[in-house]
Write a structure and sequence with these properties.
The chain is mainly alpha-helical and 507 residues long. Helix content is 75%, strand content 2%.
């Protein structure tokens, strides 16, 4: 779409795009540190404060596929500038918000930009680096985990020295720098002649189903006596109906938001349910760790944000190692082992311990909580490469769509998980004690993914097993042991099995 620039300017564009995406990544985690302060400052119950997290994730969820289509059709620069502008303006308005209702609305505006930054920025990087796009995009996608480290620590530092409003104001000068620099430095690309077709009806049904569900849960959290109210149950029925209509719509639409076969037919259905339950447990758990650190351990705001750092570091390190051995290990074992580690960390949190004696060493406070959440980070890092590749291997030609669906179902689970945690907390007078019980329940939710993992074909193990059979069947380059089984013969045509495409395949 754009002509390839000189080598110096492309790195300027890379840094600008990376800065914009880093802002979005930081903002996905930074607000979780401020939940106690927002509750006091805005005089709002936690059921509504939780919407500052869920509204951001929900709008991001919808914007990601839309921004990708808009960027391909209307031009990278236009969409990137719009998203950066929306994020910057939303950040400014969030910092000025006088009430919880307006803060939620401005968080949604912020997410319109935040959700579109990654797809449009990846498009810019792809265009700028040409034949070296694979390495550039690989480096570019490592920015989000870095944001997971910076966000909670920066949020804790800001809250320790200033107020929750500065959490949002910090984005404004960075956003202005990116806007001005990209406007003047990036050449305008021309829109394509392709007709712009976006499934707004499907988007509306899907988003409407989630909003009805979350609003019903919020109302129930505000007033538990509404459990017998027919209007409340009407919201839940409407949510189920909208999800049903969404499935019916994508089965019949010419260009649906997501392909029906990749959503509701096995083995994709099992993979999507795996990601849904995983997201509900993992994101519902991690979003409230800073709140748990304050209410259960009595930590200050800086420590409550920093306690998430071991989780992010463990996730990055273990994920890198697991990626190197994913073919040798297969997909199923790392997925189940990762789920086991995350479930174990949830079970440990559910014990409510504030101090543990290990031999002659006493772990307490920050170090105890940091060690437990670090264990969960190791589990997430172990399972992430395997679960991602397990889905893509089912239909490699649909890699982009499957990757998008994986993110969509995980984030949908996260939105519902956060809303569920907030609802459950409304029934406890002591939030710290309530979270210990909730973490035990989330451990059970996480374990639901284990039988689902067995329904997802382990194509990595099957390929490796087929290669071993092939070696045994053709020891000297002939078929003296009899005809080679058809499955083995077919497997030999696979580029990884027949060649040395992956050094991890050796016995």
């Amino acid at each position: 779409m754009t002509s390839e620039p000189d080598s110096s300017s492309r790195y300027v564009f890379f840094l600008l795009s990376a800065l914009a995406v880093l802002m979005s990544a930081i903002d996905s985690t930074i607000v979780a540190v401020a939940l106690p302060q927002l509750t006091d400052a805005l005089h709002a119950p936690l059921t509504w404060i939780g919407w500052t997290l869920t509204a951001y994730q929900l709008v991001q969820l919808v914007m990601m596929p839309v921004a990708g289509r808009l960027s391909d059709t209307l031009g990278r620069k236009r969409v990137f500038l719009f998203c950066t502008g929306a994020f910057t303006l939303g950040s400014l308005l969030c910092g000025l918000a006088p009430s919880i209702g307006l803060l939620i609305a401005f968080r949604a505006l912020q997410a319109v930009g935040g959700g579109g930054l990654m797809p449009s920025a990846v498009g810019i990087v792809s265009d700028q680096f040409g034949r070296r796009r694979a390495q550039a995009i690989g480096l570019f996608t490592s920015i989000f985990p870095i944001g997971g480290i910076i966000g909670p620590n920066l949020g804790g530092y800001i809250l320790h020295n200033w107020s929750w409003r500065e959490l949002f104001f910090v984005n404004v000068p960075l956003g202005v720098i990116v806007l001005v620099a990209v406007h003047f430095l990036l050449r305008q690309d021309q829109p394509t002649d392709d007709a712009l077709r976006i499934d707004f009806l499907g988007m509306g049904m899907f988003a409407g189903g989630i909003i009805a569900l979350m609003y019903g849960m919020t109302r129930l959290g505000d007033d538990p006596t509404l459990i017998s109210n027919p209007l409340l149950w009407g919201l839940f029925v409407a949510s189920a109906a909208l999800f049903g209509l969404f499935l019916r719509h994508i089965a019949r639409a010419a260009e649906p938001l997501v392909p029906y076969d990749l959503v509701a037919r096995n083995p994709f259905l099992a993979a999507n349910l795996y990601n849904l339950f995983y997201g509900a447990a993992a994101f519902g758990f991690s979003s409230f760790i800073p709140y748990y650190a304050v209410t259960r351990f009595g930590m200050d705001t800086f420590s409550s944000g920093a306690v998430l750092t071991p989780r992010a570091i463990a996730m990055i390190v273990v994920s890198a190692l697991a990626s190197m051995y994913v073919i040798k290990l297969g997909y199923r074992f790392p997925m189940i082992a990762g789920v086991g580690l995350v479930s174990l960390s949830l079970l440990l949190l559910g014990q409510g311990w504030t101090e543990v004696q290990l031999g002659g060493v006493t772990l307490s406070g920050f170090w105890l909580l940091g060690a437990i959440v670090g264990l969960s980070g190791a589990g997430m890092g172990l399972g992430a490469p395997a679960s991602s590749n397990a889905g893509i291997d089912l239909a490699p030609s649909e890699a982009a769509a499957i990757t998008g669906l994986r993110g969509m179902f995980r984030q949908t689970g996260g939105v519902i998980g956060i809303a569920g945690v907030v609802l459950a907390l409304s029934y406890f007078s002591d939030p710290g004690e309530g979270l210990t019980k909730i973490y035990l329940a989330l451990a059970g939710v996480m374990l639901i993914t284990v039988p689902l993992a067995f329904l997802i074909p382990d194509t990595a193990w099957e390929r490796r097993h087929a290669r071993r059979q092939l070696r045994g069947a053709l020891p000297a380059g002939d078929e003296s042991r009899g005809p080679v089984p058809a499955t083995v013969r077919a497997a030999s045509a696979h580029p990884i099995i027949s060649g040395g495409a992956d050094p991890g395949l050796g016995d």
